[in-house]
Write a structure and sequence with these properties.
mainly alpha, binds iron/sulfur cluster
């Protein structure tokens, strides 16, 4: 009896999710809602309160969206990409201008490296110009994205050019979605005899998968943007399902690990730590103290040194752990690193989410976003909205950090045991020690800052 009840519950959820993917208003209804929100935010940035604390756009973009978007990706996968207004614009332009050529092979192969460099440079740039306090710069950040989308849509198939190769959000989107609890899956039996390959090629009325996935072989959610197109074009009803999967199941079956994703997984904990450290007043004061000690007045030079220094340390820690493990398993350093660096993704997710908690639940987070929103319409009230006390926030942060560590250890075990050549979990001990070290360092940073 105990085994039957969860089964029934799961089936009910499956059919509902799958029906959503078939719905003619999906994802258009979400895309239009997000577009309206984006236009409203742009209006708020340009025409409402000039003070950064009182401006809805700045609080909404950097604190609310900056917290919710990454959580939505590691929890539910890249559905955000299907709702992204830029994706929608590109799709629209593609339809107007007609059929397009595919992106060049080199871009397909190396696009992610460009996206990775763009992302790292953007995070550096945000601090260098203190973008979090400027509505103009925040809006200007959208201009290159708009240009990339338009160029991609006019010359190439937009989703391939921008959404699949160059968007700076790709490193986060791909790596975090490895942990997603939702997955799109095809029934192998139905796909066996399928000659249309509609999910990949499309048909007369609808194009195929925008990111070039062939559903019969799909066993990862790193590329799928959850647009639902394959559900609508597949000629065999019931073949495709959107369903829940075991948390972090994907780490068992990363068949072709990518060096670009592994590099991002190993540098991101360091980049995250210094990014948030300098955002908190205590950290900012400490950085200014270090500047005095070093006799420099250039914040830009100090920030550049700290940022790229943290990235290098992070890469060296993961690379060093891979080096030691490779000696145990007789693998090459490259083989070891590219496969095992993926296990650091849950820890990075834990660090990222934990650092966002005091910003989101503090008085200047969700609370300020709601107050600023009502201010635009001339309403004001004095109550606090979902503000957490410092003690509760500390517990939450440490809990998320611990969950990230446990997640990474689980991922490590899954990667280690999914390869027949392994000498068991023992061979992954250096990576496990490295994860614990990261956790201790970040935990100490929490104690200094909060
Ligand atoms: S998902 Fe549908 S269209 Fe794609 S291979 Fe399977 S049966 Fe064919
Ligand atoms: S497999 Fe492709 S078409 Fe299907 S939901 Fe994912 S991105 Fe869209």
């Amino acid at each position: 009896m105990r085994a039957i009840v969860p089964e029934i519950r799961t089936v009910a959820k499956l059919s509902l999710l799958t029906r959503l993917m078939h719905h003619r208003l999906f994802p258009a209804a979400f895309q239009w809602s997000v577009l309206v929100m984006l236009l409203f935010t742009a209006y708020a940035a340009l025409f409402t309160a000039p003070s950064p604390d009182r401006n809805f756009a700045l609080v909404f973009v950097w604190i609310f969206w900056g917290t919710v978007a990454p959580i939505s990706v590691w929890l539910f996968g890249r559905f955000w990409c299907a709702m992204c207004p830029f994706h929608m614009l590109g799709d629209f332009l593609n339809k107007i201008v007609g059929p397009k050529r595919p992106i060049p092979r080199w871009l397909r192969q190396y696009g992610f490296w460009i996206a990775l460099v763009l992302f790292i440079v953007i995070v550096w740039f945000e601090h260098a110009v203190n973008i979090f306090q400027s509505t103009t710069l925040t809006l200007l950040l959208l201009v290159p994205v708009l240009l990339g989308t338009v160029i991609g849509a006019v010359i190439y198939r937009n989703e391939e050019f921008w959404c699949h190769a160059l968007c700076p959000m790709l490193p986060i989107a791909r790596n975090y979605s490895t942990m997603s609890i939702l997955e799109v899956r095809a029934s192998t039996m139905e796909c066996e005899g399928c000659t249309s390959k509609g999910c990949y090629r499309g048909d007369d009325s609808i194009t195929g998968c925008p990111v070039g996935l062939y559903l019969r072989n799909l066993d990862s959610m790193q590329e799928c943007i959850g647009c639902g197109r394959c559900f609508k074009v597949c000629p065999t009803p019931g073949t495709l399902t959107l369903r829940f999967r075991h948390f972090m199941d994907e780490f068992r079956r990363i068949r072709l690990p990518r060096m670009d994703a592994a590099v991002f997984a190993s540098i991101w904990p360091g980049a995250l730590a210094i990014h948030y450290f300098t955002l908190v007043p205590t950290g900012d004061r400490m950085v200014k103290g270090w500047m005095q000690m070093l006799g420099t007045s250039s914040y830009l030079a100090m920030w550049t040194l700290l940022y790229f220094g943290s990235i290098a340390v992070s890469l060296l820690m993961v690379g060093g752990a891979s080096f030691v493990s490779a000696q145990i398993t007789d693998e090459s350093l490259k083989q070891r690193f590219v496969r095992y660096a993926y296990a650091f993704i849950p820890l990075a997710v834990g660090i990222h989410t934990a650092f966002n908690m005091p910003r989101f639940f503090g008085p200047q987070g969700l609370n300020r976003a709601v107050h600023n929103f009502f201010d635009i319409f001339g309403y004001s009230f004095s109550g606090l909205v979902m503000v957490l006390g410092l003690d509760s926030t500390r517990v939450l942060m440490n809990g998320l950090l611990a969950a990230g560590l446990i997640g990474s250890l689980v991922a490590l075990k899954r990667i280690a045991t999914s390869h027949t050549n392994e000498r068991g979990f023992f061979s992954a001990l250096p990576e496990a020690v490295c994860m614990v070290l990261f956790t201790v360092i970040i935990g100490s940073v929490f104690r200094i800052l909060y």
